[in-house]
Amino acid sequence: MQTITNWLELEKTHDSGIYTKHEVVIVRGKGARVWDSQGTEYIDCVGGYGVANLGHSNPYVVEAVKKQAETLMIMPQTLPNDKRAEFYAALQGILPPTLNRYFPCNSGTEANEAALKFAMMATSKRKFVAAMRGFSGRTLGAVALSYEAKYREPFGPYGHQVVFIPYNNLEALREAVDDTTAAVFLEPVQGEGGVRPATGEFIQAARQITQERGCLLILDEIQTGMGRTGKIWGFEHFGVVPDLMTAAKALGGGVPIGVCAMTAEVAGKMPKGGHGTTFGGNPLAMAAGVAAIRYLEDTKLWERSAELGGWFAQELRKIESPKVREVRGMGLMVGMELKEKSAPYITKLEHDHHILTLAAGPTVIRFLPPLVIEKSDLERVVGAVREVLA
Ligand SMILES: Cc1ncc(COP(=O)(O)O)c(C=O)c1O
Hints:
Blueprint: H1 7-14, E1 26-30, E2 33-36, E3 41-44, H2 47-50, H3 59-71, H4 82-93, E4 101-105, H5 108-123, E5 127-131, H6 149-152, E6 161-165, H7 170-176, E7 181-186, E8 189-190, E9 196-197, H8 200-213, E10 216-220, E11 244-247, E12 258-262, H9 264-267, H10 283-299, H11 301-317, E13 324-330, E14 333-338, H12 343-353, E15 355-356, E16 358-359, E17 364-367, H13 375-389
Parallel strand pairs: 3-15, 5-6, 5-7, 7-10, 10-11
Antiparallel strand pairs: 1-2, 2-3, 4-12, 8-9, 11-12, 13-14, 14-17, 16-17
Helix pairs in contact: 3-10, 4-10, 11-13, 12-13
Pyridoxal-5'-phosphate (PLP) binds at residues 49, 107-109, 112, 135-137, 187, 191-192, 220, 222-223, 248.
């Protein structure tokens, strides 16, 4: 077979065209570093869009995946499997006791899709209250809750009703939730919408209002989970427990995974066959998930995230530039909002400093580095941001 080296050209030729491609081909990663096909090293603050919390090619996860690949890769959920059971036990170990029923799947949007369907079935209602600037995924159920018009509008109308309220606005939340509401659906920190942390009062009010009105609280921990915000889950900052919680991204240590966790009461309302998946809960992803959870617990990476993230945000705030509006974040989920478009600065960081970052909306530079990143790497990032803004 012919050796292929024109990777960039091939990607550009055959890709669906929905992504604006960078002019590099990334071929390898380790910890918080990645390398391109020319051997150039980058500090990776994209972190696979918040997947690589435990570091690229985390050796503990790699070992578990290798072993499981040789043992058994696929087994549908009708046939119980040792790794799936271990995954459930590991997940229960890092979740509140009431969240003890799990629907494993393969991605964030699938986890949210499941949450919507379980909530509809549990309440016999189909109205959801979601937040402006929220992001829930791209499939047809979840995208209806993704606020950005370009994601949502071309594909409607949708079969479920979604009412958007301003994030952190208690009054609007109180007004929006009524007898027809199935669930309030929120991110503990809005990621895609610009790295905007919720206030404790808002999430606590969401818990109280949903309980009073007999509807459900769904928290999307897809980007905020697995230590990203300085706790294992974002909701731990607020002292509330939702009825359903979705996770994905870092939960598989780099392997595609998703889960919708819920109470037994919610799960009990879905009839047999009411939802399903072929790949979800496959032993390979489950082994990766077990390894990822164990690694997180052993290393307490969320503590590192809190400490390094707090320090990093503080250092970014010290940058004196008229271009900066605000630095926000929780743990190592950090956003720097500019008073102008962030894209040119993201490109400059990559080209001039070999630092990969991503946008969150048009004006925010978002940093989602692996939680194992060294402080010295973050120091370099701060220095580079200072230079590109100068
Ligand atoms: C909060 C949140 N929900 C849902 C999703 C969708 O996850 P996925 O891209 O795995 O479908 C994302 C992805 O960025 C997300 O950040």
